[in-house]
Design brief:
Length: about 500
């Protein structure tokens, strides 16, 4: 019998599929979609409610509501990550976070004053940090490393879905059902999400019953017996990366991985997250700061958040001034142009597993740069639409390799868990999406050709990201690959 297996206890129903990586992908993807829908669905209707309550300066007040959400998100991210890693807990933080989300929506829906709205948005920001930190960590716990990019990409499809669907849906529900309409829809979606989180089984619980989700087999989840008794001709070292196998043969510790070999992904003892002693916050930050690979991933995360959000305040004004589009036509056009984002994360996630994050991240950002220039051409609306759709597709395609890269960083730094690295991402991306709209709005208002300036800045920052990714992203960065090829050619 495998170590740690439970005896004389009732086996949970549906253990295999409830702990399987594909079900975890569904749970996290649904959680991300619900979080983004709840955030975005009320944006078009809040100004009308503020006017109904008798407030003036509605635009400024709406902006501060967005700031309240961001503040709650950023302030809670690190405590949530430390809590999850310290107690090796995923399910219960995710349940608490969703209950907080439901409570915040009820509070906002029935808020009699602006102050109550602000408190509700802060609570919503706190709840959002849970799915973006603990949810992604839970997914990485159970997904086999060789397909982590694909599964993260599928889960991140929920982000694009929420961004595309929620704003127009909120407007439709408000026009037909009133102010409470969007909130009722959000609460129904949150209830479906709650059921999914209640059903899921964490890796540490499944392992006690002899089921290890990260072992791929014909069943929904692998068993510990499969790990201890490999098939004929298969050895444990064959499942290790080349540096790990070489170091094991020499009886050494792989210094590039910063941990003793054979301890991080051994099914006998559970995952890396379960066996390592949690580190204090300062030591986690210090280890991340010492890793060039981690720093570059976080810098690119900030740039991604900045460039993505910098166009948002200027885009409607640009379309209106250049082609005379009404607000309704701008909304419909933006919805149509955002559809390609639904497919970019799953596609690039699959390529990450096949080629590596270093190739996909670099190629995705490099291919996006020209389209940031084309959208500045004052030609036909059709040309703008095609170029903006391609710009969105390739720019958002960088998110899957970023998430896969952060997961690899966690596995390669002793004592740093998945929740830690995704908390760092949340902070970097959150700062980017907070600063981006402010910078974009100011540039559009105070520079003669503001749209052109915004797009040029976005292209320049993406080019900087490419320059950083080439030497520092991936298990074997492109610069290292090029240097090895050059050395072989010189030696021959």
């Amino acid at each position: 019998m495998a170590p740690g297996r439970k005896v004389n206890a009732t086996r949970p129903w549906g253990l295999h599929w409830r702990s399987a990586y594909w079900f975890a992908t569904y749970v996290v993807g649904l959680g991300v979609a619900v979080d983004v829908v709840v955030y975005s669905i009320i944006i078009p209707v809040v100004p009308f409610q503020l006017e109904h309550l008798g407030y003036s300066n509605v635009s400024a007040l709406s902006g501060w509501l967005l700031f309240a959400y961001s503040g709650g998100l950023l302030l809670s991210t690190i405590p949530v990550a430390m809590w999850s890693e310290h107690y090796n807990a995923r399910k219960y933080p995710m349940l608490v976070g969703l209950l907080a989300l439901i409570g915040s929506q009820i509070m906002f829906m029935e808020a009699p004053t602006y102050a109550v709205m602000c408190v509700a948005r802060i609570i919503q920001g706190v709840s959002s940090s849970v799915i973006w930190v603990v949810g992604l960590a839970f997914l990485c716990d159970v997904v086999p490393p060789e397909i982590i990019g694909r599964q993260l990409g599928i889960a991140m499809g929920g982000l694009s879905f929420g961004l595309v669907v929620a704003p127009p849906l909120g407007g439709v529900l408000y026009s037909h059902l009133g102010f409470r309409g969007p909130f009722v829809f959000a609460l129904i979606a949150a209830f479906v999400d709650l059921v999914s989180r209640l059903i899921m089984i964490e890796q540490k619980e499944a392992t006690k019953w002899g089921v290890h989700p990260t072992i791929r087999s014909s069943s929904a989840g692998g068993t510990l017996e499969e790990a201890f008794d490999p098939a004929p001709g298969d050895t444990k070292s064959e499942n290790l990366s080349e540096p790990q196998a070489r170091a094991n043969e020499e009886g050494k510790t792989d210094p590039s991985l910063h941990r003793p070999l054979g301890t991080s992904e051994d099914p006998a003892v559970g995952s890396k997250r379960a066996v390592e002693k949690p580190l204090p916050l300062f030591q986690v930050m210090l280890r991340l700061l010492k890793s060039s690979r981690a720093l570059v991933a976080l810098v690119i995360s900030f740039i991604y958040g900045f460039v993505y959000s910098s166009q948002e305040p200027a885009l409607p004004l640009h379309l209106q001034s250049l082609w005379g589009l009404s607000s309704q036509r701008v909304g419909v056009l933006f919805l149509a142009l955002s559809v390609p984002m639904l497919f970019s994360s799953p596609i690039t996630g699959w390529f990450v597993d096949a080629l590596g994050a270093e190739w996909v991240a670099t190629a995705s950002m490099l291919l996006a740069i020209p389209w940031w220039g084309v959208v500045t051409v004052q030609g036909s609306l059709a040309l703008f639409g095609v170029s903006f759709a391609l710009q969105s597709f390739f720019t958002s395609g960088a998110i899957s390799p970023l998430f896969a890269e952060l997961a690899a960083v966690s596995r390669n730094i002793h004592g740093v868990g998945y929740a830690h690295v995704y908390a760092a991402f949340n902070v970097a991306y959150g700062i980017g999406t907070t600063v981006g709209p402010i910078a974009g709005g100011q540039m559009y208002d105070h520079i003669q050709n503001g749209w052109f300036a915004i797009c040029v800045l976005g292209a320049a920052l993406l080019f900087v990201s490419v320059l950083l990714a080439i030497p520092y992203t991936g298990d074997k960065p492109l610069l290292v690959r090029a240097r090895d090829v050059l050395r072989r050619r010189v030696s021959t």
